[in-house]
Amino acid sequence: MNFRMKSERVEALYNHMVRYLCFILTLFYFGNLNAFPVPKLTRQVTDLAGILSVETISSLEQKIREHEKETSNQIAVLTIPTLDGEMINDVAIQVFDEWKLGQKSKNNGVLLLIAKEERKIWISVGRGLEGALTDLQARYIIQNEIRPNFKSGEFDLGVSSGVDKIILTIRGEYTPSASDVATTKKLLSNEETMASGFNGLIVLFFSLFVSSVFGAIVTGLAFFLLYPVFVFLFGKTIGIFLAILLFFLVLFLKSRVGTFGGGGSDGGGFGGGFYSGDSGSWSDSGSDSWGGGGGDSAGGGSGGDW
C-alpha cells in the first residue's frame, strides 16, 4: 500500500512538472518571438546601417585589434538600420551576450551600438571593465564626443572619436568629472530592480508553503518579481535559463516540504545544469575570423540620442 501511494505521489509530481515545464517553455518561446535578430560576429566593426566609410571601418578595426593585443580587451561596434520596436538597451544586452564580448575569465568587453532610424546610441560594458569605464563615463563619451558629430552628419568622425575615447578611458587616460553628467535616473532604476528582487525572494519563500493552484500563482508572482534582477545581473538569455533552473529547484523543495502533490516524499531530486563554452576564439589574423572570447555583460550601460 505504501509503495502504491508513493508511486502515485511520484506520478502526480511528474505530471505537475511536465505541465509547468510546458508553461515555462511557452513563456520562453513567446518572450523571444520579438527578440532582435542578432547578426553573426565576424569582425570588430559591423556596419549594417551603412553609415561608415570603408576607410573608417578599416582604421577602427586596426585600432581595436592593436588595443586587444595590448590588453586583451575586446571592443565591438555595431550599427543597425532600426531597432524594430525594441528598446536599445535590451538589444545591446542581446547582442553583447550573443557575441560574448571580452575574455571569459575577465569579462572585459565593450559594445558601441548605434540605431540609425531611431537615432539612438548605447555603450554596454562587461563586468570586468565597469570600474574603468563607468556608466557616467560612457554617457559622457556619447554626449560630448559622439552625439555632436552625429548631429552634424559626421558619422565617421563620431564613431572614431567614440572608440578613441573608450580606449583612452579604459587605459585611465580620459576621465570626466562627476559633475559632467547626471546619473540619478540610472541609479533609481538599479534601486527599483533590487527592490523588486528582494520582494520576489520573500514571495518565493512564502510560496514554498502554499499548495494547490494558489501556490502556483504565488510562485509565478515571485518569478515575475525576480526576472528583472536576473536580466539586470546576467543578461536576458542567461537570466531566462537561470529563472527556469530556479523554478525547478522550487518545485523540488515544495515536494520535500509536502506542499506539492500532497504529503512528503522519500528520496528523489533533480540534477544537471548549464554550460556555456566560448562562442568564438581570440584571433590576431584579421577581421574575417574575429570572434567573442566568452565574456558577458553586466546588463547595464549608458545611452543617448542625436
Topology (elements, then pairings):
Elements: H1 2-31, E1 45-47, H2 54-71, E2 74-80, H3 88-99, E3 109-115, E4 120-125, H4 135-151, H5 155-170, H6 184-207, H7 212-234, H8 236-257, E5 302-305
Parallel strand pairs: 1-2, 2-3
Antiparallel strand pairs: 3-4, 4-5
Helix pairs in contact: 1-8, 2-5, 4-5, 6-7, 7-8
Description:
The protein has 306 residues and is of the alpha/beta class. Helices cover 53% and strands 9% of the residues. It is built from eight helices and five strands; from the N terminus they run H-E-H-E-H-E-E-H-H-H-H-H-E. Strands 1-2-3-4-5 form a five-stranded mixed β-sheet, sandwiched between helices. Helix 1 runs antiparallel to helix 8 (236-257). The longest helix is centred in the first third of the chain and has 30 residues, at 2-31. It starts with a helix and ends with a strand. 35% of the residues are buried. Residues 29-34, 176-189 and 259-288 have low confidence and may be disordered.
